[in-house]
């Protein structure tokens, strides 16, 4: 939604011939302190779950990110008491449940990270997620429905679950789930904008269509992948904070502010060492479609 | 409250009486000063007894009152750009004298003003006031050919913006919401069209612009940083006149005419932009339905009922419309209405009673009407918000004698805030979220005494008592104090009935201005003022947007209070050709608002849980040199300043620079009359880059590279310096007896500098594994403008 607004403002600038423009520039920013960064998102999808533990590096640096391999990471299912140790192999920490899936609906999880003589912990709960009922696409010429590029525009259909407030993270990919192929991240509350406004309603059309990268629409033969991830409120708050930091361009840009972390240092005797990142959990609903 | 008010007023009346008994065998000369050609009342005209320091200036309605000993006097009426008039008066009793001044045909042959120039900075009591006539503003280079009030004040010292396209301006280190912008005394909440590019004030309907940055007279209140007092033209009461202009952005047309010659007149002025229509051929498909326009209508009428009563009715209506086809529509705008009654009780007591209405609203609508499939539900989302206020303010001026005058009055404004209403529709199913309305009553009483015991010394001191009630019918929320910077948790709420006081605040606001004239050419001044503000614009973006809501002071949000100290020096060259002024100021601001990270400012009933109290301080030096007479006129202004804030929960609770802080700011405005029909003007601005926070690291997370600043400090970097040159050339056509036309050619940003509006960090669109720092320039090239102006 923010993005849509952002585009409106840029359009204003273009249309009036103000020639608003963006340039990539070189900035001389001294290298900052490097902190450990935990990338842990556990879902109810079947199979192996992965956790990355890296070090922060200079923003524009091009080299590979340093990986931390000597941490001990354990996931606790607080609801059942099950324990899942994550083992480091091939640059990530992995856990392959013997059968089925690690994440269970409505269970609370605690993640424990032992690293450099400190212990960090965080918890999150897997909330239910709306089901994608249908996914389809439509070929649009430039100008149809106000699009600026011709191509295949995908839309998914889902209906918000009535009752509680549901926070959902909508992510789309092209062809595979590599970093380079992530298209869009959008966040909705009860499928819409705001608490208590659209409870139980069908996800609006513009949300269903928010999976498209309007600058690079799907091409013939592309596989569109759409995933809805349920979010607890703290996780919603965090990922939308991240979103704000990642899309800080435009006339209505907010100022850069650091995103927080839910990983608390629980080392006996107290310690001020910190790690960044987030431990989140989700139920996932996904759908794919190939355009042709 | 009421008893205090009565006390204050009775002290005032006693004072008046005491002052009056001193004045014996004196008579009063009073009247209105108007323009000979169009009958417009003239503001700030010097009225003085030649060869002495005795004198006054006309007020906002062109009225003056000068009490002198009985006998013979030479009275001079003068103002830059007008041919001065000297009248010989035998004062044997109170006398009424209305004067009409002739415009000098050109600045070239302006007669050097002799005698006292009461309106010059060296002679006025107040510090920190800049006044611009519309004639001056019209000479400055324009943006896309449009004369702009707000752009012109940005060339004055102490006024900054965060950049091109900013919807607000910052005065002496204050936030953009701390400026009281008045159009014929009604507050205007969004002063720009098109997201900050044009101001809402139609130059054809504006008479004068007064910017007060400090040393506020007691009659002004309600905002802490500045007052931008814009007065509309009364309308030509001599002949019908039509003014218009056609440019590449929009067209203007105004009509003014007498209703009854010398008695009453009106002006109606309208503008409409047509960028979207011009763009149509360049757009394809559904984009053809793109709407991007604004319009505004400004109108005023005045009726001189008799010698002592004048009635003014004025109004403004403006709208910005922005949308794609029928599916996306955003629009916003101000509406104001003012009714004023001027009454002259006797030659020395003048009343202006103003009542006003002001409304700012916006709406944002989405639907899938034209893009939906037949099987789809009709879905729509509609979000609206507004702020409405009604005000009344009787204000009296008592011209006791040449040495004393007293201003006093009371004011009341009733506010209704509609923070937001959201309607979500899905087929037959509609949900509505309506945030509770909020109400506030701001009341004030003030008295202000201007005392000039000698030519050398003068003082204006006053007191304003302001009272604010946060009123029902509404709900007050109560929150837990938590760690600053974290969303507060709700502990309870209470609903209050209609007009029940939820929370009351009152403040005493002392104001003082002192002037000491070293000699005719040099004066030093000092001032102190306290100002309060009971409303706050919630904006966590670089500059305010049309969709930012205003919120009143409540049980959780304390009113803003600012204390400002100013020291000034003014010099006026003997020949009247140059003026130089310098001021230093220090300002302390309490209870400003800041926001927790990722605050939810829209459609949030519990918005106060996301707000953080903050305090600011700013200080600086402002210098301005001005030349008003000759073939080359203009000014140079320089500001050296610092503005910083401290918020618990941000920047490790340490002071950090405000987003709008600029250390150096230089403006050069020059107009040169090449000959009677050709003039050239240029404007150059330089400003230190605004503070910003850069990412020194990135966090890899779920395919993202999150920008992060490992120092946890805010605004420690600065963007590159801002500078820009604009020029314009005006060619007047043959000045036929009736039809007068002129072409204005302008170039904005002549050397096509890409000034940074913001610098942000993002992954490359095409290669997510590449990260970049991006500079956004709202204006990236030279912008030409052509306007044809005409009048007949």
Compact description:
The complex is a heterodimer of chains A (292) and B (792). Chain A has three helices and 16 strands. Chain A has 292 residues and is mainly β.
Describe this structure in words.
The complex is a heterodimer of chains A (292) and B (792). With 292 residues, chain A is mostly beta strands. Chain A has two domains: 36-127 and 255-281, Sandwich (Immunoglobulin-like), CATH 2.60.40; 129-231. Chain A has helices spanning 2-15, 205-208, 233-246, and strands at residues 21-25, 36-43, 49-55, 72-77, 83-89, 92-95, 108-115, 118-125, 132-140, 151-158, 167-174, 182-189, 223-231, 264-265, 276-282, 284-290. The radius of gyration of chain A is 21 Å and the shape is globular. Chain B has two domains: 2-109, Carboxypeptidase-like, regulatory domain (Immunoglobulin-like, Sandwich); 129-791, Maltoporin, Chain A (Beta Barrel). Chain B contains four helices and 52 strands. Chains A and B meet through helix 1, strand 1, strand 2, helix 3 and strand 15 of A and helix 4, strand 26, strand 27, strand 28 and strand 45 of B.
Topology:
The complex is a heterodimer of chains A (292) and B (792).
Chain A: H1 2-15, E1 21-25, E2 36-43, E3 49-55, E4 72-77, E5 83-89, E6 92-95, E7 108-115, E8 118-125, E9 132-140, E10 151-158, E11 167-174, E12 182-189, H2 205-208, E13 223-231, H3 233-246, E14 264-265, E15 276-282, E16 284-290
Parallel strand pairs in A: 2-15
Antiparallel strand pairs in A: 2-3, 3-6, 4-5, 4-7, 5-6, 7-8, 8-14, 9-10, 11-12, 11-13, 13-16
Chain B: H1 2-22, E1 26-35, E2 46-49, E3 55-57, E4 63-69, E5 71-78, E6 82-83, E7 85-91, E8 95-96, E9 99-103, E10 129-133, H2 134-139, H3 149-153, E11 159-160, E12 170-171, E13 179-183, E14 186-187, E15 192-193, E16 198-199, E17 206-212, E18 226-232, E19 241-247, E20 250-260, E21 264-273, H4 275-279, E22 291-306, E23 309-324, E24 328-346, E25 349-367, E26 379-399, E27 404-426, E28 429-434, E29 438-451, E30 457-471, E31 474-479, E32 490-496, E33 501-517, E34 522-533, E35 535-537, E36 550-552, E37 560-572, E38 578-595, E39 611-627, E40 632-647, E41 656-657, E42 664-675, E43 678-687, E44 691-692, E45 697-701, E46 704-708, E47 717-718, E48 722-732, E49 740-748, E50 758-763, E51 771-777, E52 783-791
Parallel strand pairs in B: 1-8, 1-9, 13-18
Antiparallel strand pairs in B: 1-4, 2-3, 2-5, 5-7, 6-9, 10-17, 11-12, 13-14, 15-16, 17-18, 19-20, 19-52, 20-21, 21-22, 22-23, 23-24, 24-25, 25-26, 26-27, 27-28, 27-29, 29-30, 30-33, 31-32, 33-34, 34-37, 35-36, 37-38, 38-39, 39-40, 40-41, 40-42, 42-43, 43-48, 44-47, 45-46, 48-49, 49-52, 50-51
Signal peptide (chain A): 1-22
Protein name (chain A): DUF4249 domain-containing protein
Pfam families (chain A): DUF4249
């Amino acid at each position: 939604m923010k993005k849509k607004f952002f585009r409106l403002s840029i359009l204003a600038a273009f249309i009036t011939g103000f020639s608003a423009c963006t340039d990539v520039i070189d900035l001389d920013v001294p290298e900052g302190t490097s902190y450990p960064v935990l990338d842990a998102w556990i879902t109810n999808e079947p199979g192996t779950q992965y956790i990355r533990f890296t070090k922060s590096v200079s923003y524009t640096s091009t080299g590979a990110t340093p990986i931390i391999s000597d941490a001990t990471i354990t996931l606790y299912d607080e609801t059942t008491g099950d324990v899942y140790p994550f083992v480091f192999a091939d640059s990530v920490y992995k856990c392959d449940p013997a059968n089925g899936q690690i994440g269970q609906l409505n269970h609370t999880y605690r993640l424990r990270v032992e690293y450099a003589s400190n212990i960090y912990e965080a918890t999150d709960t897997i909330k239910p997620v709306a089901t994608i009922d249908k996914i389809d696409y439509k070929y649009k010429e430039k100008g149809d429905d106000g699009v600026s590029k011709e191509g295949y525009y995908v839309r998914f259909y889902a209906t918000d679950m009535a009752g509680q407030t549901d926070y959902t993270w909508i992510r789309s990919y092209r062809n595979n789930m590599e970093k380079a192929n992530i298209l869009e991240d959008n966040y909705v509350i009860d499928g819409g904008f705001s608490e208590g406004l659209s409870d139980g309603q069908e996800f609006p059309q513009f949300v269903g269509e928010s999976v498209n990268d309007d600058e690079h629409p799907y091409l013939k033969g592309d596989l569109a992948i759409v995933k809805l991830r349920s979010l607890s409120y703290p996780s919603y708050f965090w990922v939308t904070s991240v979103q704000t930091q990642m899309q800080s361009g435009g006339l209505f840009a907010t100022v850069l502010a650091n995103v927080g972390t839910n990983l608390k240092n629980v080392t006996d005797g107290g310690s001020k060492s910190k790690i960044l990142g987030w431990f989140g959990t989700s139920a996932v609903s996904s759908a794919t479609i190939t355009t042709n | 409250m009421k008893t205090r008010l009565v006390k204050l007023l009775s002290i005032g009346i006693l004072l008046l009486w005491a002052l009056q008994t001193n004045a014996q065998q004196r008579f009063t000369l009073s009247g209105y000063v108007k323009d000979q050609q169009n009958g417009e009342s003239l503001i700030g005209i010097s009225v003085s007894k030649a060869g002495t320091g005795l004198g006054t200036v006309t007020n906002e309605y062109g009225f003056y009152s000068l009490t002198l000993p009985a006998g013979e006097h030479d009275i001079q009426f003068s103002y830059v750009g007008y041919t001065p008039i000297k009248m010989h008066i035998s004062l044997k009793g109170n006398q009424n004298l209305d004067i009409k001044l002739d415009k000098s045909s050109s600045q070239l042959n302006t007669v050097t003003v002799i005698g006292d120039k009461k309106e010059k900075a060296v002679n006025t009591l107040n510090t920190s006031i800049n006044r611009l006539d519309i004639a001056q503003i019209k000479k400055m280079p324009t943006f896309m050919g449009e004369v702009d009030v707000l752009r012109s004040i940005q060339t004055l010292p102490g006024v900054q913006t965060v950049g091109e396209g900013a919807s607000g301006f910052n005065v002496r280190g204050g936030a953009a919401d701390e400026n009281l912008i008045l159009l014929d005394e009604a507050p205007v909440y969004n002063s720009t069209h098109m997201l900050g590019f044009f101001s809402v004030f139609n130059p054809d309907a504006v008479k004068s612009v007064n910017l007060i940055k400090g040393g506020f007279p007691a009659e002004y209140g309600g905002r802490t940083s500045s007052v931008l007092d814009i007065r509309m033209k009364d309308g030509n009461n001599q002949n019908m006149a039509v003014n218009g202009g056609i440019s590449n952005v929009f067209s203007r047309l105004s009509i003014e005419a007498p209703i009854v010659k010398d008695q009453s007149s009106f002006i109606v002025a309208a503008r409409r932009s047509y960028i979207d229509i011009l763009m149509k051929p360049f757009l394809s498909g559904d984009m053809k339905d793109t709407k991007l326009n604004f319009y505004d209508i400004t109108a005023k009428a005045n009726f001189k009922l008799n010698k002592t009563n004048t009635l003014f009715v004025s109004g403004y209506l403006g709208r910005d419309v922005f949308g794609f086809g029928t599916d996306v529509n955003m629009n916003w705008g101000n509406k104001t209405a003012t009714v004023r009654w001027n009454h002259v009780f006797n030659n020395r007591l003048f009343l202006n009673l103003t009542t006003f209405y002001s409304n700012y609203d916006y709406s944002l609508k989405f639907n899938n009407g034209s893009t939906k499939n037949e099987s789809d539900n009709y879905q729509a989302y509609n979000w609206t918000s507004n702020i409405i206020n009604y005000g009344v303010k009787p204000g009296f001026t008592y011209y006791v004698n040449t040495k004393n005058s007293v201003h006093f009055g009371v004011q009341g404004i009733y506010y209704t805030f509609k923070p937001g209403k959201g309607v979500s529709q899905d087929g037959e199913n509609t949900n509505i979220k309506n945030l509770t309305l909020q109400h506030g009553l701001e009341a004030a009483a003030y008295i202000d005494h201007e005392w000039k015991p000698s030519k050398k010394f003068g003082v204006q001191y006053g007191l304003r008592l302001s009272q604010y009630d946060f009123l029902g019918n509404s709900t007050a929320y109560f929150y837990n104090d938590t760690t600053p910077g974290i969303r507060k948790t709700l502990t309870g709420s209470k609903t209050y009935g209609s007009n029940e006081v939820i929370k009351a605040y009152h403040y005493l606001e002392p104001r003082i201005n002192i002037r000491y004239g070293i000699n005719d050419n040099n004066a030093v001044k000092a001032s102190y003022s306290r100002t309060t503000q009971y409303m706050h614009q919630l904006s966590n973006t670089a500059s305010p947007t049309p969709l930012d809501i205003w919120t009143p002071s409540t049980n959780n949000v304390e009113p803003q209070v600012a204390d400002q100290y100013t020291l000034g020096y003014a010099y006026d060259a003997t020949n009247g050709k140059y003026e130089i002024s310098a001021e230093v100021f220090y300002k302390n601001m309490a209870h400003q608002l800041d926001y927790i990270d990722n605050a939810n400012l829209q459609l949030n009933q519990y918005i106060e849980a996301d707000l953080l109290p903050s305090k600011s301080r700013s200080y600086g030096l402002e210098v301005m040199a001005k030349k008003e007479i000759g073939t080359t006129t203009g000014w140079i202004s320089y500001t050296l300043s610092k503005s910083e804030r401290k918020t618990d929960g941000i920047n490790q609770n340490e002071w950090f620079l405000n987003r709008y802080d600029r250390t150096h700011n230089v403006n050069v405005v020059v107009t040169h009359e090449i000959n009677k029909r050709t003039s050239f003007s240029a404007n150059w601005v330089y400003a230190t880059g605004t503070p910003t926070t850069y990412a020194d690291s990135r966090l890899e997370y779920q395919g993202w590279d999150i920008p992060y600043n490992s120092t946890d400090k805010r605004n420690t970097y600065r963007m590159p310096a801002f500078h820009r040159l604009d020029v314009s050339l005006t060619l007047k056509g043959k000045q036929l007896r009736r039809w007068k036309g002129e072409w204005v050619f302008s170039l904005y940003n002549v050397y096509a500098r890409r000034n940074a509006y913001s610098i942000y960090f993002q992954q490359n669109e095409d290669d997510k594994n590449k990260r970049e720092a991006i500079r956004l320039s709202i204006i990236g090239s030279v912008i030409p403008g052509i306007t044809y102006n005409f009048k007949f």
